[in-house]
């Protein structure tokens, strides 16, 4: 595993990846591994509730593109079914980052290292909106939209959405806020802002377009 390191920019990250390939982790990654094994392994080893699995490149490809900063933001926020910081008592940013770095490292090789942090700012912002949208969706909307309850168009099923898709996020969000057919005004809850509803709708629409790979 000899490799000439051309870019100094990614050199340290790259170098630690190479070291690990040889079976050794840098001190930071080792610390991340230890914490991961205590706090995160329960869900991230087998993929509980869709948690991206350690070492599974398909689960992480899109997430590598988001880069460590965005993933850190996500972990603090607590993605769906995870709770903030995986419900762990850890406060130190450095420690949390070390776990994320270890997880990213588990899927980093010559090929995937090129993906790291390549997403645009808009893609990163969208990642966070969808993360929140999905979380909120799973509090309220799943009741009807995970199936086709009362004629609700189901997530992940473009055929059930038909021309509704073309209304766009804003108009669809209006439908939710004003109520439509068997869906009550604000889907029957007063707990969310217009931006929240918009995020939920954006998440729902995203399930119609990304059936191929990116997210589970
Ligand atoms: C109770 C189960 C559970 C535990 C414990 C848990 N996670 Fe997760 N994690 C998840 C699930 C589920 C997702 C996927 C959520 C999604 O895609 O909406 C996730 C997603 C992530 C992501 C990707 C976020 C993104 O932006 O896509 C990172 C990074 C992560 N977890 C890190 C951690 C770390 C670090 C720990 C330990 C401190 C941890 N997780 C503990 C369930 C868990
Ligand atoms: C009680 C069941 C129920 C719940 C809960 C529910 N919906 Fe609906 N939803 C429906 C039904 C039924 C329709 C189809 C209405 C029609 O066209 O007659 C629908 C339609 C929609 C549409 C398409 C609107 C249009 O203009 O065609 C969107 C978008 C939507 N729901 C989003 C949401 C969001 C976001 C939530 C959570 C905040 C939610 N729904 C919660 C039942 C529900």
UniProtKB/TrEMBL annotation:
Q: Which PROSITE patterns would you find in this protein's record?
A: CYTC
User: Which InterPro entries does the record cross-reference, listed alphabetically?
Assistant: Cyt_c-like_dom (IPR009056), Cyt_c-like_dom_sf (IPR036909)
Keyword line? Heme, Iron, Metal-binding, Signal
Signal peptide range equals: 1-22
Q: Does the keyword Metal-binding apply?
A: yes
**Entry's Gene Ontology molecular function annotations:** electron transfer activity; heme binding; metal ion binding
Look up keyword Oxidoreductase and say if it applies. no
Any Pfam family the entry gives: Cytochrome_CBB3
Residues annotated as domain Cytochrome c? 27-107, 128-208
Query: Which segments does the entry list as coiled coil?
Result: none
Looking up SUPFAM superfamilies in the UniProt record yields: Cytochrome c
This chain belongs to the protein called Cytochrome c class I
- Organism annotation: Thiothrix nivea (strain ATCC 35100 / DSM 5205 / JP2)
